[in-house]
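Sync notes, pocket subgroup
Present: LS, DG
LS reminded everyone that the earlier model was apo-only. Rerun requested with uridine-5'-diphosphate included. Inputs:
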Amino acid sequence: MKVLILGVNGFIGSHLSEAILREKDWDVYGLDIGFDKLGNIIDDPRFHFVEGDITINKEWIEYNIKKCDVVFPLVAIATPATYVKNPLKVFHLDFEANLEVIKSAVKYNTRVIFPSTSEVYGMCTDEVFDEDKSNFILGPINKQRWIYSCCKQLLDRVLWAYGFEKNFNFSTFRPYNWLGPKLDSISTTKEGSSRVVTQFIGSILRDEPIKLVNGGHQKRCFLYIDDGIDCLLRIIENKGGVCDKEIINIGNPDNNITIKELAAKIKRIFEQHPLVKSKIVQKKVKIENVSQEKFYGEGYQDVTFRVPSIKKAKALLGWTPKYGTDSALSKTIDYYIKEYVEDKKRCGKDLR
Ligand code: UDP
């Protein structure tokens, strides 16, 4: 099997590549503008990497789409602060660039495994979000936060239409707040520019307070990256064609907590880390409230709760998530504290 991953150096792409090379005999063809998250796999003979941009290296992409069995178009901006500040950037990359990839895959009949998002459900009021039954509820146009959701939704619909009219084969997956090592870069993180878990860990390490938007009463279900990758490997394998033209939620409904609870857990786990307890890393964790207008600006609207139905993933793939919130956070915090220490050592700075 030949798997093409566009955006291979991203959070999902890098973990997926590692897992494929470790657990399968497949080849990975990967493109990205960077390679800092790839570590040793870059030297693996089954890993074929090209440094490049999906908006520029179009011939390489077309050639590899033709050659490969499956393509993951993972290049996208996926941070809410960017949806608010640069909605057109999100449109050009997340929608336009990926539409070209999808059209090329249709041309060569290469299966697409498309990263949709739990954001497509928007402010849906269903207790659990069902891939084939729930309605999508988005805010008005002047709340540009929804451009990401809307771009992904339209690509979901385009793929569905190619399946419906041209019998094109795709599988769409919807991640629900995945977390883990390499989620976002802490050293380059500015307020509001990364996802909540890395935002909080980064704030602690930069001696800034953790900020709870609107008091942090909103809830999310957090899924550890290894659980997500386990599910994706099953989707690629697609035994008996079970995932043909299917849309699949990938999340952990048992890890449903408020953002305030998340902050408290991160504080507790951080303070119990051996490098913190032994005072090698010295940080004081402070938690503050902030209004959404102050944190994100006027174009933001929040999602109060977001719980996946994972009945389909269970039924089709026999998949169930294994990691609870505490173990997922412990692994992630451990990674970032160690990265912080290494970084400081490299720069010859002290650890306070
Ligand atoms: N959030 C927060 N403080 C931060 C970053 C995010 O309170 O520093 C909140 C945000 O308003 C949202 C939730 O945490 O309700 C999850 O945010 P994230 O950026 O991870 O993405 P989302 O789940 O909204 O797509």
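DG: The first strand starts at residue 2 and ends at 6.
LS: DSSP finds twelve helices and 13 strands in the chain.
Action: DG to write up.
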